[in-house]
Amino acid sequence: MTALPGETPGTGGTDTPQDAVSPPDEAGAQEPGAPEPEADAEAANDGAAEASPVEAEDEAGAEGEAVDPASTEAGAAEASPAPELSEAQAELAAQRELRERIEQRKAAKAAPIAAGAGLSGTAADLLAAVRAVESGEKAGSAFFGQPAAPQAPRRPAPAAAAPPPRTPAPQAAPAPQSASPEALDAVRAVLVAGGAPEALARPAVGALGEQAAELLRTDPWQLLAVPGVRPEQADGFARALLGTDCGPDDGRRTAALVGWVLERAALQGHTALDAEAVRAALAERAVSDPDAAVREAVEEGVALLFQEGEAEEPEEDEAAEEGGLAPDADTAREPVRILLGLDRYALAEESLADGLARLVNACEKAADWAEAAAAAPSPSAAELIRTTAAAGLVAHSGGEAARAEPAALIAAARGLGLRAFGAAHSEDGRRRLAAATGDPDTAVTLAGLLSGAQGPGRDEDGAFALDLLVVLDAPQLDVESAAVLVEALADGARLVLSGDPGVLGSAGAGRVFADVLTARTCPQVVSRTPDPGPIGELVSGIGIGELNQVDAPGREVVIVPVRDAGEAVHRTVQLVADSVPRAFSIPADETQVITVGHGGASGTRVLNEALKQRLNPGPGRFGGFDPGDRVVHVPAPGRAVPGVVRSADAEGLHLDCGGVPVVVPQERVESSVRHGWALSAHQAAGMRWPAAVVVLPGDAAAGLSRPWVYTAFGRGERHLSVVHGVDRALPHAVAEVPAQERTTRLRPLLEALPTPDAAS
């Protein structure tokens, strides 16, 4: 028996769901005090929550050219005297010479993009410079922790051959490089001197490197690079170390704040922010001259400056000479948008745009796959095969049932003698793809492919030894991973990005799949295969903004109304432990609970505690865990890997993650392992279970959106239970709360590149 979800009574709540990144505190609340350590695993698990950007308004879709930090000082000095020009426009007038130099740099590459060339040695030099900033003495060094990817030389794809043996899966996850005892002791001494907890020593060394103690001593605001530390806490730490020698306008403080704001925005998926939003955030943090603070941050290398579009100024004198009227500054000029971004994301977006253009233009277009298309299992699969035969880059979109079409493409390409592989977001997705292709060797996880633990390996030039790569769950692809992936594809290789545009976006910064779709840089294939059954019908309606009542004769969809959070927890445990196993013969370990936030009266923490007490009670003798506990492991920010605890010893906590043994070192268990009976929708994206229980108590209403509901409701294969207490907030979210836009630069970069074979 089913019910229309929006008609179920419920109660409102006051707790804010923890998946959303909350805005910073108000200015003036910077009381002295030591920063408290704050676990960041939840934020890393969720990645980019669908929330507004940090401390400022969210505007999406930006393009521009990188502005040399050295030019900003000249830009301020040469600002146009015209009273109608804004300050941003005046700065841009002084940056034209720099844009010409950028164009000359692009033209000086080893080969033009149209010929299929990738990044030149200049970009490699830039990578080295970025890494020098990370480990050096620049004020922004704390904010660039991701190592740059090695540049693979461009080469033609090797001739088709039989697939080489797969690299065996690792028996354990590699442990992160541990900090030296000397560095930890030195950092602890500085932290104690500033009144900060010693527990921050290890994450501080992880964020700042072996030189963390010296950096913190000379620039205490570098502590903002440690996850969980907030500006008011860093201010208290700085006052304890520097005394009266620091203030709200200290250049070290303002530079660190700019980086902190941009890093917070990256957690929500933005690769850049409007400069006005950054200035507003600084003003709220008691910075008296935000404009000067932004300029200094750019000069110090903390951020890069970009402009959206061309900033051509009208020539009023010429217009007058020609007898025309001088244009009105308020009506003739569109506002120039200035963006600020971290160089790691700027480099990734530009590298990715160049690489995608290379794939589009370097592929051999005369391949004859007509016979393979004729044998395809569905019309949509045949269309995908034909389109891929004639293009180096293809975007394929569809729901869960549409995953059969990329599988058919891989099988067809293999039948033609090509080395074809598919990469999924999760181990669960890899298993489903392998089952669809009928060949386990064709399916890998994206993380396994990039690390070399899975897949075809690399050729003598460092490129993946393949001819066709299909990336499933493409909305989960962040811009940095995408840039590394595309750079590792040989000239002539084909790339298909496949996914469901309706699901939540990537945990990391960027919106690669959405930007490729909107830029129309390549042919697009939209699946005509609908998702079957009542769950498929329900989710398909949600995708177009409609929450419909569906017929579920087999109780595939069940709505369980609740009055408050306590009842929601009780009914959830009852469903997982009793009702679903009894009615559908689905054991508890194959039922996944999904809720909006980690905190609150019915968040993942409370639900996991209740489910553990019922399903696997124990003293938690292994750092809070017992053998048999379901957990989620976060090996890297944005990656949530479900697993089960097996044992523990001196090496660490032993997990079984989808059949792969993983050992988590003792010092990382607290920060990277959580119980996993209940997950957030962001953690569950890219995976499916036989049954799903979605918990929507009253305090979850503020965290709901159409992509969230679409993602959560689509995680169950055979059964979906909705523990419903948000009343009309659910249909409102489905109909009127779309995904929050992310500010990125990839779409305009793709539109500006020469891609003569792109779809019209």
Strand order of the largest sheet: 6-5-7-8-4-9
Mean pLDDT: 80
The rounded Rg comes to 27 Å
Spans of at least 5 consecutive residues with low confidence: 1-91, 109-134, 137-176, 314-325
End-to-end separation in angstroms reads: 47 Å
| Number of helical stretches of at least 4 residues | 30
In short:
The protein contains 30 helices and 19 strands. The chain has 760 residues and is of the alpha/beta class. The protein is globular and about 75 Å long.
Label this structure with key terms.
single chain; 30 helices; disordered N terminus; 5-stranded parallel sheet; 39% helix; 760 residues; 19 strands; 6-stranded parallel sheet
